Amino acid sequence: MHYFDDYFHDEKQRIAILNLFPPEFKKGYNLYRKGKLIPTFPGDTPGWYLLDPKSTIKFNIND
User: Fold this and answer.
1) How many domains does the chain have?
2) Which domain holds residue 20?
3) How confident is the model at residue 55 (pLDDT cuts 50, 70, 90)?
4) Distance between CA 45 and CA 17 in Å, rounded?
5) DSSP characters over 1-63
6) What CA–CA distance (Å, rounded) separates 29 from 49?
7) Is the distance from CB of 28 to CB of 1 less than 8 angstroms?
8) Digit-coded pLDDT (tens) for 7-45
């Protein structure tokens, strides 16, 4: 979720971008901002929000 902070510094723009994503992204981002993201597995780093694997796809943009 820290991607949205890293690449969209302007809050209005960040919110506009988040609104382009499904609602669970905004939910995950809000949990991230509140420091309430629970690690999914041992060694997990803060900032990751586990999406439903039955309805998601990953595009690797920067790597």
Assistant:
1) 1
2) 1-63
3) confident
4) 23
5) -HHHHHH--SHHHHHHHHTTS-HHHHHHHHHHHTT-PPPSSTTPPTT-----TTS--------
6) 8
7) yes
8) 999 999 999 999 999 999 999 999 999 989 888 778 777
Asked if 31 and 37 count as a contact pair (C-beta separation under 8 A), the reply is yes
- Look at residue 9 in the predicted model and tell me its pLDDT: 95
* 4, two tokens: 């949205």
| Cβ-proximal residues to 13 (8 Å cutoff; 6+ apart), any chain | none
Say how far apart CA 43 and CA 16 lie, in whole Å: 32
Burial of 37 (0-12, 13-18, 19+ CB in 10 A): buried
Return the pLDDT at 63: 67
